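Hi everyone,

Forwarding the result from last night's run.
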Amino acid sequence: MRSTRRHVIAGGALAIGNGLPALVRSAVAPRSAELQGAGVGPLMKGRAPSLFIGHGSPMNAVQDNTFTRMLRDWGNELGRPRAILMVSAHWLTDGGTQVSLAERPATIHDFGGFPPELFAQRYPAPGAPALARAAAQRLAPRAVGLTPDRGLDHGAWTVLKFLYPAADVPVFQLSIDINRPPAYHLAIGRAVAGLRDESVMVIGSGNVVHNLRATMRGVPDSPNGLTPWAEAFDQRAKQALDAGDSAALLAYERLSPGAETAVPFPDHYYPMLYALGAAQQGERVRHRFEGFQAGTLSMRCVQWG
């Protein structure tokens, strides 16, 4: 039976390192906002893809590893879209979806206990307020708020810095109304799917399996989960994605015997539903990356289109 518990949030999900209190810091990009679609190199042609990215630890932002090298190669292959609509596990709201309108999104350091090198990171991509307003209009008649000064949280910039290191693609974010049921999040993805035809790429950033209390500190990256419950849930999700079985993915608490351990809180799982919702019927599903960090953290990345 699906849980009816209400999720309590305080400004969104945070990442904690070394057991220290979480900090929220931001830095505004030092340059003025760019025109939508401005940047170096040719624009992507045709419909932009829909992506789900397992972002893992914020430390990936300052590491050269198999995952971050894959992101660089992936970005080069994709080309540059007109803009990116980002749904991150680290912007949670309650009582309505919010859309960011910032022209110069700050780089938000929404984590604590990590080295100064990570707090020094900046991702000065311009915003896309006009496209953000267009996305909000597509969500009617749902409750939608416009947030003028929301920056880019680490679920966004830690992956975008590898996909588009020049920070030349405008980005805006859509929040996750966390106390809505899974079907609501899939429907939001479907509502904004049409933006892909305007060369706006939809990205959900989270993790299929995410239980920070069950991670294994110091273990190397691995191709499979190091616990049966993590591996089983990740593989069952892959099977459902390949089969286009949205009903199974919506009922994630019954996806595998250890589902409630794999997804104790759905903040990192729900971004996948947005990317799935934005996918078009019959589009090929490609698993661009598979593997685990910290033993139980699925880094699965998926592309539609």
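The longest strand covers residues 200-206.

Cheers,
N.
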